[in-house]
Amino acid sequence: MTTPLQLTFPDNRLLAELCGRQDSNLQLVEDSLGVQLVARGNQLAIFGPSDQAMQAKHVLEDLYALLEGGQSVSPAQVEAALRVVGGMLDVGLRPGEVMTSKLITTPLIKVQPRSITQARYIGALQSAPLVFGVGPAGTGKTFMAAAQAVQLLVSRKVKKIILTRPVVEAGEKLGFLPGTFEEKIDPYLRPLFDALDDTMGREKWMKLREGGQIEIAPLAYMRGRTLSESVLLLDEAQNTTPSQMKLFLTRMGEGSRMFVTGDMSQSDLPRGIRNGLKDALETLEGLRGIEIVKFRETDVVRHPLVSTIVSAYAEKERQIPLRLEE
Predict the structure, then answer these.
(1) How far apart are CA 202 and CA 198, in angstroms?
(2) Tens of pLDDT, residues 191-234
(3) Could you give the CA distance from residue 219 to residue 227 in angstroms, rounded to a whole number?
(4) Topology of domain 5-100, per CATH?
(5) Cystine design at 132: which of 209, 244, 292, 296 (Cβ 3.0–4.6 Å)?
(6) Cα separation, 261 vs 234, whole angstroms
(7) DSSP secondary structure string, 39-57?
């Protein structure tokens, strides 16, 4: 029988939190890495192939360190650590280093990276004047951009948040929606509103909206404006044309920041119309002061099944050109 790796933890109470209710956290590690974990007293024994056992060791030790630092460990944190340890070979970082290296602090929550790409993205949001977050649904790109915008506003580094997106109809006619134009545009910005709910609370951000510190501005209405000391967040950028994207990017004024998010696989532009997000990435990549962070299917942090669905669709799209050539 293979000699197990033995881990000793000094605080039994923290070890119980690490294990989770009915050892649910340990079960996640076992299922993900193909190891067996046996708890005895204040020790954990790890049985399994040496590489997987060492990965489990890193995950458990780093999660325990988070508990020692006063943070909680939920199944989401366990899954995040497992996701990170799976990509450690390219960056040489431990899960705990990735999960604590970059934080976005908002009035209600602290946003931690749950993948290596998310850590890079948060670093870009915190340092670069213009950041593109591009990739599939469920990678957290819009949520983290909104959270960083909130942090900049509440810390008074900017005076205003401006939320915008192109209004492209995907099967529904905007004119038939009830209410004023602002009421019609609100459903299109629901993911951003959800992020504001989570990071600062609805009552607070609605009050800021009434006072003009948070503004909803349809992309078509941005023409002619120069916006200083603001965070401008463009969501669903894959639905812009090149002229719309240029219009948005040239609104940046003194002391402003811009965050652009989009998913190239979910464009609603009519066939034959050049994509503004793709055009911008091709035009601006490599320029100083501009950060482009590209997420992959493995960065999806929603329900595990979402990653499987995204990967299946991506694989299908990759096979289409091959079929055309046959």
Answers:
(1) 8
(2) 889 999 999 999 999 999 999 999 988 887 788 888 899 999 99
(3) 13
(4) Ribosomal Protein S8; Chain: A, domain 1 (3.30.1370)
(5) 292
(6) 6
(7) EETTEEEEES-HHHHHHHH
Strand pairing of 130-134 and 214-216? unpaired
Contact 242, 256 (CB under 8 A): no
Output the six-digit token pair for 317.
């799209």
pLDDT (tens digit per residue) in 259-274 = 999 999 888 888 888 9
Give phi and psi for 72, each to the nearest 5.
Answer: -90, 160
Beta bridge partners of 114: none
Tokens of residue 49, six digits: 């192939």
Rounded to two decimals, what is the model's pTM? 0.75
Start-end of H helices in the chain: 12-19, 24-33, 50-68, 75-85, 88-91, 95-101, 116-127, 141-154, 181-185, 190-200, 202-210, 242-249, 276-284, 304-325
Beta bridge partners of 293: 133
**Mean pLDDT value across residues 138-159:** 95
Token pair for 151 = 């942090």
* Residue of 46, 49, 55 lying closest to 89 (CA atoms): 55
Q: Which residue has the tokens 């965070």?
A: 231
The values of phi and psi at residue 234, to 5°, are -105, 115
For residue 190, which amino acid is it? R
**CB–CB of 80/99 below 8 Å?**
yes
Contact 202, 209 (CB under 8 A): no
The domain locations on the chain are 5-100, 114-325
- How many residues can be counted in the chain? 326
- The CATH architecture of the domain made up of 114-325 is 3-Layer(aba) Sandwich (3.40)
176-196 in b/e form (b: 16+ CB < 10 A) is: eeeeeeeebbeebbeebbebb
- Is the pLDDT at 190 greater than 70, yes or no? yes
Give the angle subtended at the CA of 225 by the CAs of 224 and 229, to the nearest 5°. Answer: 165
CA 230/CA 248 separation, integer angstroms: 13
